[in-house]
């Protein structure tokens, strides 16, 4: 798959340069085309497993997007013309397709997962010339953050240490039961049930590391394929009902929409 490159937008978090710390990793491993940097053996193995789970989860979503007839596709992407765009983007994720110029010896352009422990490990200058350190994004409950305009995804310490983050959602208890990812509907109100922490969108799904990884990778491929549209920063609409009412064009730019869609398959 070939992604459309839309580089060079002058936005807040886009880096025009990267520090040499990113080019001289202490530890470097690969999961397919994805590079995993400075994560140690145990955490690298966990990321490898998560990427395998992402791959497995994406396959039915890619097929569904190609048909454009599924209710989840129609809910989150609406327009049949988005079918090829969504399926191509998700296929790029499965392949680790080149999204950005290589520019270094770490990857051929696929997103790079960089485990952060402190300031000074990965940074550079923004398009306006201001200094930028990826570790500064690791505040509060932020578990990972893609560095818009680059192939780098910073994995924050809380990704590994938070007791609220678990690796993957549980399997359904029986074949006739709905998957734990499925959103509940309030048919009389024509909206999804629940609250932000209660099975109500990507905020609920974000407790699972597999969906955190998928969202940050999707951010990279959205930027490479579509840029930012008319916005000055990436679109992050987590609430399922808010994502449901996004326009067909904005839904393509919203990484949580892809997570909600894939998790519902």
- Rounded to the nearest angstrom, the distance between the terminal CA atoms is 22 Å
Structural class assignment: alpha+beta
The H-and-E topology, N to C, reads as: EEEHHHEEEEEHEEHHHHH
Low-confidence stretches: 1-16, 176-180, 185-191, 193-200
Mean pLDDT figure: 80
> What order do the strands of the largest sheet run in, or round the barrel if closed?
2-3-4-8-7
Radius of gyration: 18 Å
Share of helical residues: 25-40%
Strand content: 5-15%
List the total number of helices. 9
In short:
Helices cover 35% and strands 13% of the residues. By secondary structure, the protein is of the alpha+beta class.
Structural write-up:
- With about 260 residues, the protein is an alpha+beta fold.
- It is built from 9 helices and 10 strands.
- It has helices at about 40-65, 70-75, 80-95, 160, 200-205, 210-225, 240-245, 250-255, 255-265, and strands spanning about 15-20, 30, 35, 110-115, 125, 130-135, 145, 150-155, 185, 190.
- A 5-stranded mixed β-sheet has the order 2-3-4-8-7, with helices on one face. A 3-stranded antiparallel β-sheet has the order 1-5-6, with no helix packed on it. Strands 9-10 form a two-stranded antiparallel sheet.
- It is globular and about 45 Å long.
- The two termini are about 20 Å apart.
- The relative contact order is 0.18.
């Amino acid at each position: 798959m070939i992604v459309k490159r839309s580089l060079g937008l002058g936005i807040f978090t886009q880096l025009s340069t990267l520090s040499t710390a990113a080019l001289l990793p202490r530890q470097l491993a690969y999961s397919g085309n994805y590079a995993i940097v400075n994560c140690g053996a145990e955490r690298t193995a966990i990321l490898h497993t998560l990427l395998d789970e992402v791959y497995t989860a994406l396959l039915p979503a890619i097929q569904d997007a190609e048909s454009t007839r599924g209710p989840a596709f129609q809910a989150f992407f609406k327009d049949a013309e988005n079918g090829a765009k969504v399926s191509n983007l998700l296929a790029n994720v499965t392949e680790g397709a080149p999204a950005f110029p290589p520019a270094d010896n770490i990857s051929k352009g696929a997103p790079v997962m960089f485990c952060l422990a402190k300031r000074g490990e990965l940074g550079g200058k923004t398009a306006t010339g201001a200094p930028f350190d990826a570790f500064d994004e690791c505040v509060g409950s932020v578990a990972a953050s893609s560095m818009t305009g680059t192939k780098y995804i910073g994995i924050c310490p809380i990704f590994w240490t938070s007791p609220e983050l678990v690796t993957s959602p549980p399997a359904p208890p029986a074949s006739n039961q709905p998957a734990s990812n499925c959103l509940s509907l309030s048919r009389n109100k024509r909206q999804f049930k629940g609250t932000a922490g209660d099975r109500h969108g990507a905020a609920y799904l974000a407790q699972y590391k597999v969906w955190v990884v998928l969202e940050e990778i999707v951010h990279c491929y959205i930027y490479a394929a579509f840029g930012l549209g008319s916005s000055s920063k990436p679109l992050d609409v987590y609430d399922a009902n808010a994502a449901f009412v996004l326009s067909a064009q904005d839904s393509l730019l919203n990484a949580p929409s892809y997570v909600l869609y894939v998790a519902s398959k």
